[in-house]
Specification:
By secondary structure, the protein is α+β, with helices and mostly antiparallel strands. The chain is built from 11 helices and 15 strands. About 5% of the residues have low confidence.
């Protein structure tokens, strides 16, 4: 998430192959609540190998859930609050750092990209003197995404390949712009790669280091980290992640996450994501003026499967069946799909499945599971 590249890949393969805090409760078969039932259904009906979730109530108490298996070969249970690749949720962290720098007077939201990366953005309909920092964070730059280009040969071809940020940007510059900057929304990972490069230029430090110092350590997110250069593993308890590549899903737990970089490289847990999103909306990371900017949204019909979402600066909206909206992002990495949101009254939920959806119905059921967790 929210990018549909890996959902599209899964559908293509399908077509070709026809707890309360301190309690760490896991619902038992005799007392399954609605959240546990939806997770069980994601495994039994939608063929996800495993799923895990954390639901935090308005008083800060958390209940953990799991279903399915962690490893298709061993049949081991899914670890409670296991670490997963949180993918595009990284964009919220990157946007937060950019907005912190805005609050410090080091970045201007409406300054052109050329102010910080002079001469970098030049192409067919692409001009860094016309694209602003706000356009990047809001996905209104008009830049195409690079995922489809690198995934054209299938994910296994790039699973262990390292990408430099400039290589990702160059792939976008080789394509024509979708439209003039500020015209409308189109989700592109390239926007956040560029935002990461701006942070590095302004601070003189790597984006991963800035995210770690300014967000992860500040909030005490013990299970969230920026993978080091070349690190393809997930440290700590974690379920295996699978990708639909044919008759049998491929284990893609070990992978080089650099294709995501500032747009999608982080590893984290459901609990940490809930903590981060709650703290963000509570104003613990941003000054009021910058948080208000983050929450100014534009129509974003391709951000989720409903077609009626909106998007701000690294945050989107998620319409709830019980009324109102929640603030959300979500992420799709090979092997791990995360859906998460926090309501206006502070209830937060994160649901993770351990493979990419092989059907549109499965993807919709995952979003329904998040809705159930927030509305039950």
């Amino acid at each position: 998430m929210r990018t549909n590249a890996f959902l599209t890949a899964g559908l293509t393969v399908l077509a070709l192959t026809t707890g309360l805090t301190g309690i760490q409760a896991q619902a038992t078969p005799a007392k399954k609540d609605t959240v546990q039932q939806t997770l069980d259904a994601l495994v039994s009906d939608d063929d996800f190998p495993g799923t895990l979730a954390a639901v935090r109530d308005t008083r800060g108490r958390t209940r953990d859930y799991t279903a399915g298996v962690s490893d298709l070969d061993s049949g081991d249970r899914v670890p409670v609050n296991g670490r997963v690749r949180i993918a595009s949720n990284t964009k919220m962290f990157t946007a937060t750092v950019v907005l912190q720098l805005v609050g410090e007077g080091k970045i201007s939201l409406d300054a052109p990209v050329d102010t910080y990366l002079p001469g970098l953005l030049r192409g067919d309909g692409i001009d860094g003197r016309e694209i602003t920092v706000r356009h990047l964070l809001q996905h209104t730059s008009g830049l195409v995404d690079y995922d489809d280009k690198f995934l054209a040969g299938g994910y296994p071809a790039v699973q262990h390949r390292h990408f430099e940020p400039r290589e990702l940007v160059d792939a976008v510059l080789a394509e024509k712009a979708l439209w003039a900057p500020g015209t409308k929304f189109s989700y592109s990972n390239a926007n956040y790669v560029l935002a990461g490069l701006i942070v590095q230029k302004v601070t003189g430090r790597p984006i991963g280091e800035e995210i770690t110092r300014r967000v992860i350590r500040k909030l005490g997110l013990r299970d969230t980290y920026w993978p080091a250069l070349g690190d393809q593993t997930i440290h700590g308890p974690h379920p295996h992640g699978y990708f639909p590549t044919g008759a049998e899903p491929a284990d893609v737990t070990e992978q080089d996450p650099s294709m995501g970089w500032a747009a999608g490289q982080l590893v984290g847990t459901p609990r940490d994501l809930n903590t981060f999103m709650t703290a963000l909306l509570d104003g613990k990371l941003l000054k009021p003026a910058q948080l208000a900017e983050m929450q100014k949204t534009v129509p974003a019909p391709d951000f989720d499967l409903t077609g009626d979402a909106t998007y701000g600066l690294g945050l989107g909206t998620f319409k709830l069946s019980c009324g109102g909206v929640a603030w959300t992002h979500g992420g799709d990495a090979p092997g791990y799909v995360t859906r998460n949101a926090v309501t206006e009254n502070g209830k937060a939920a994160t649901v993770v499945v351990t493979s990419n959806a092989a059907s549109l119905e499965a993807a919709q059921d995952l979003e329904k599971a998040l809705d159930t967790a927030l509305c039950r």
